[in-house]
Amino acid sequence: MTRIPAKGRPWPELRAELEAAKGGDFSWRDARIPVFVFHLDDALTRVQQEAYCAYWTENNLGQRAFPSLARLEGEVRAMGLRLLNAPEGGAATFTSGGSESIYLAMRTARDWARATKGISTPNVIVPRSAHPQFSRAGHDLCIDVIRVPTTRADLRADVAGMEARIDADTIMLVGSAPSFPFGVFDPIAEIAALAQSRGLWMHVDACVGAFLAPFAARLGHPIPAFDFAVPGVTSISADIHKYGMAPKGASLLLLRDGALQEHQWFRFDDWERGHYQALVAQGTRPGGAVAAAWAVMNHLGEDGYLHCARLVMDTKARLVAGIRAIEGLSVLEPSELSIFAYRPAEPGLDLESLVAAMTRRGWFISLLAEPAAIHLVINPSHHVSADRYLADLRAAVAEVRARGARGQAQAATY
Ligand SMILES: Cc1ncc(COP(=O)(O)O)c(C=O)c1O
Fold first, then answer.
1. Within 13 Å and on the Cβ side, how many CA atoms surround 158?
2. DSSP letter string, 189-203
3. Which of 38, 129, 133 should be mutated for ligand 1, with most atoms under 8 A from CB?
4. In this structure, what DSSP letter does residue 125 have?
5. How far apart are alpha carbons 336 and 312 in whole angstroms?
6. Residues 6 or more apart from 17 whose CB is under 8 A from it?
């Protein structure tokens, strides 16, 4: 049991304790974590920290008190809308992360369908590879979320399967750009055309791809169209705190038609304090998250994002080639952007032992469940650790093969 200490303790002592507390963590600074963290270098980290601290105390709930935050947030929203080819009249909301952006998209679609079509028992159809947040939001919002198996050999959404599930209560179709499990783009243009032909809301979950795919495309990588350039795309979730390289707490929900925000507002008067209104699901919001996103986007600029995209795509190619060259391992195909998975493909080389051998070498291992495989989300800093990773992987495979030992199974938790 612990409790607030009766007497406060000096900061230097606590700072040392915090630093020591990290002793058992895996090192993101040495690029040993293949998920959760998006890091470029110490210089960008300094920009993130100083910009966040410049608005350390300001509350983004109070934009009348802090008009500078309204302006900075407006610029971040405008940059996102432009990047994703929103037409004139598009609108965006600055949220705390991908999960809130998805929640708001579903809540807005629900209230739009209720107001314009009288649908009171709505359902949303998503590929099974879509993020769990769609189902969580569905649970919270009383929307039935139908997950359609990704049966196609290319791991993408099964559009015909999704179409077969549409009924009179369907309000929204979803595609990922790309999906988190496989890193492939769903056929966004096909899903959007289907949505358009049935008068449905089409949401693109580009939480992963929004701030990477446009720059990878400019570098010549074959990236399918996934944004508002695709007719029929109604809304997009786009995380600035992933490949936008901002510190955590920054995402956008973008709408093709700003008039749809009428269904997004929560407006309330029935208490003594007067009118309350919000587009987001939060109350108090950190001003620092807005200031840091604004600073990172302006500091990196397009050339900085191209640099990040080059690092990510080159490192991924290097890792994929290196893993393919290790006998007994196979890389899941296709893998389009920055996410990929690989697994043992010979008897006697079991996944659990390989995971244990890599963990012993200081690598945090993230797992895909179906099929059982090791899962990586490449961030720009991985370019410094890729060669070490491959060397350790070669050694781990040799060790497991030599011992023929079986390790402890580890569940593929997020
Ligand atoms: C495709 C996709 N959508 C949504 C999310 C949720 O984003 P967040 O963790 O910022 O809430 C993630 C997170 O990894 C994701 O990969």
1. 14
2. HHHHHHHHHHT-EEE
3. 133
4. E
5. 12
6. none
Q: What are phi and psi of 350, to 5 degrees?
A: -95, 150
Q: Which two tokens stand for residue 45?
A: 């980290």
State the residue for tokens 């920055």: 338
- pLDDT, tens only, 147-164: 999 977 899 999 999 999
**Probe target for ligand 1 pocket from 99, 100, 145, with the most ligand atoms within 8 Å of CB:** 99
Could you tell me the CA-to-CA distances from 149 to 121, 142, 157, 387 in Å, in that order? 23, 22, 8, 36
Phi/psi for 387 (5° steps) reads -65, -40
The answer, yes or no, to whether any atom of ligand 1 lies below 6 A from the CB of 338, is: no
Domains of the chain: 48-298 (3.40.640.10), 302-403 (3.90.1150.10)
- Ligand 1, atom 6, residue with closest C-alpha: 98
Structure tokens at 148: 């359609």
Q: Which two tokens mark 383?
A: 């370019």
Determine whether the shortest distance from the Cβ of 203 to ligand 1 is under 6 A: no
**Dist. CA 138–CA 126, nearest whole Å:** 11
Q: Ligand 1 centre from 66 Cα, in Å? A: 29
Do residues 332 and 340 lie in contact, with contact meaning Cβ atoms separated by under 8 Å? yes
Give the atom of ligand 1 at the shortest distance from the alpha carbon of 241: 10
90 Cβ closer than 6 Å to some ligand 1 atom = no
C-beta 180 within 6 A of ligand 1 = yes
* Identity at 135, one-letter amino acid code: S
Which residue has the CA at smallest separation from atom 14 of ligand 1?
Answer: 180
Task: Give residue for tokens 């994929």.
Answer: 320
Higher pLDDT pick, 185 / 414: 185
205 ligand 1 Cβ < 6 A = yes
What is the C-alpha separation between 78 and 88, in angstroms, rounded? Answer: 11
Please work out whether the CB of residue 131 comes within 6 Å of at least one atom of ligand 1.
Answer: yes
Q: What is the pLDDT of residues 330-382, one digit of tens each?
A: 999 988 999 999 999 998 899 999 999 999 999 999 999 999 999 999 999 99
